[in-house]
Amino acid sequence: MSQSGCPADSSKEYIQNLIALLNTLLVPQGITAKSESEDNCLYILLESATVPEQQKMVAVVSLAVNSLKDASLSRVKIYGRQIGDPFTAWIHEITLNPESTIAATVDLERCQHGLRERSSDAHSVPRVE
Hints:
α1 packs across α2. A five-stranded mixed beta sheet has the order 1-2-3-5-6, covered by helices on one side. Strands 4-7 form a two-stranded antiparallel ribbon. It has a single domain, classed as Alpha-Beta Plaits (2-Layer Sandwich). β2, α2 and β3 form a beta-alpha-beta unit. It is globular, with a radius of gyration of 15 Å. By secondary structure, it is an alpha+beta fold. The protein is built from three helices and seven strands. The relative contact order is 0.17. The longest helix is centred in the N-terminal third of the chain and has 20 residues.
């Protein structure tokens, strides 16, 4: 018997729809989106032959998240990296408030300086398959 009314099923369907929408928008640009979720947080990994541009990708993901609202999520973490690189070049977290509007936190130093350096404190990315 199907339990389509179950919140977990609803959240899983939301995530599948969101990633499908993102890939529809991004694959033509050579960028793929993958995701995992845990503890009311959605992790989205964006990969391409070159590091995806943070500012543009955050805007695209923000619009997609706003268009497909899911009350069970409180945060969305977006990671950008070059294909084959074990470390992310940037991370951006979006905090969703109860009204599902977005309040984004930007890593201004990285954004302003356009840093794409790899360092010993490089961000690790959650395992996404």
